[in-house]
Amino acid sequence: MQDSETRSKPRRSDATRAAILAAARERFAADGYERATIRAIAKDAAIDPSMVMRYYGSKEGLFAAAAEIDLNLPGPMELRMQPADHVGRSLVAHFLDRWERDEVLTALLRVGATNPAGAERMQRILKDQIGPVAAAVCPDPAEAPRRAALVASQVLGMALARFVLRFPLAVEMPREEVIDWLAPTIQRYLTAPNP
Amino acid sequence: MQDSETRSKPRRSDATRAAILAAARERFAADGYERATIRAIAKDAAIDPSMVMRYYGSKEGLFAAAAEIDLNLPGPMELRMQPADHVGRSLVAHFLDRWERDEVLTALLRVGATNPAGAERMQRILKDQIGPVAAAVCPDPAEAPRRAALVASQVLGMALARFVLRFPLAVEMPREEVIDWLAPTIQRYLTAPNP
DNA sequence: TATTGTTGCCAACAAGCGTTGACCAACAGG
DNA sequence: CCTGTTGGTCAACGCTTGTTGGCAACAATA
């Protein structure tokens, strides 16, 4: 075992590690935590199940590694650069982009629904990544957390309908139309005065 | 086996059947499909696991029976009785009520996230129960399905945050405040002109 | 009372799971 | 050329799962 933080000579096993992680993300996204078996993940990565244990310790450890997520949201400065009434729109577009590109988000959503550890991780993401955005643009900073939660509820709800439950009506709706509908909602949750 | 539709002499086993169903709903709601084991459900109902099989055929059959859901939404006439700009508010209140009272809804949400059969059942509910509401109040009936999907995305998103993931910020938000925030969103999704 | 169906428990099955440790092949440094 | 480390396979462990069939007690009917 070696510190993965410090840059050291690349190991021969790095490729295997990456293959396992990629397969794990795919399986977790498609099947959720319980039905994504280590054996299936190992088969996808074309290695032995025991390697997964060696490199990630346990199934929980593998999931923890696979669910490392950075939403890559704009920082406070970038937020204030654009017109205030445009934040909702650009945020919705960003989320949609993010979700389409990265199956890990779908995986986390699936796992969070049945696994306490997954739910906790989602909570951290809300607090650490969406919270600051709300704090930067909402009128009363004390209200930021609640507004962040509201934003999360609409964004996660659309992600659920579109990428997890795959409601045909939500899947077929063109990206631009989704944005047109959701943007005002997000905008209001962030910046409207208390109703 | 006997037709449960036709009214026949009540069986002695009806109590057991009901106990199993109640325990199943609780477990499915708390743990999701895979982690809610037949053995655990049977123990909760204080009977033998094999009884579950006898009365419901299989685990899937049990879930199908446990997830029979009627959202009890207002009919077209009732909808037109109240002022048109009040529909959003009363709908949100109704959904919140429904979710707080009936753990089956949480169960279905949890199961739908990882189980294809669960997802399909949610889809049917959207189509058969939310769809008509949208059709009754939205300006262009042809658009009703899409608007129903939007409504579902926000309602399910809040249910996810509040009852499944249990984000503290969403859980602690008082019921009335949730309604105040969501009502305008739902109202807009239902009745606003295409954005 | 004798018979027949219902209700329930018990013990076991086969399959699948996460996880472990022994073992082998290839490489690296001296 | 050895020797220790790394990358990897294999076979098995202990356990839990959904599911099944046999068997005893009871109720109902005739």
TrEMBL record, chains A, B:
<dbReference type="InterPro" id="IPR001647">
    <property type="entry name" value="HTH_TetR"/>
</dbReference>
<dbReference type="Pfam" id="PF17920">
    <property type="entry name" value="TetR_C_16"/>
</dbReference>
<feature type="DNA-binding region" description="H-T-H motif">
    <location>
        <begin position="37"/>
        <end position="56"/>
    </location>
</feature>
<dbReference type="InterPro" id="IPR009057">
    <property type="entry name" value="Homeodomain-like_sf"/>
</dbReference>
<protein>
    <submittedName>
        <fullName>TetR/AcrR family transcriptional regulator</fullName>
    </submittedName>
</protein>
<keyword id="KW-0238">DNA-binding</keyword>
<dbReference type="Pfam" id="PF00440">
    <property type="entry name" value="TetR_N"/>
</dbReference>
<dbReference type="InterPro" id="IPR050109">
    <property type="entry name" value="HTH-type_TetR-like_transc_reg"/>
</dbReference>
<dbReference type="InterPro" id="IPR036271">
    <property type="entry name" value="Tet_transcr_reg_TetR-rel_C_sf"/>
</dbReference>
<dbReference type="InterPro" id="IPR041678">
    <property type="entry name" value="TetR_C_16"/>
</dbReference>
<feature type="domain" description="HTH tetR-type">
    <location>
        <begin position="14"/>
        <end position="74"/>
    </location>
</feature>
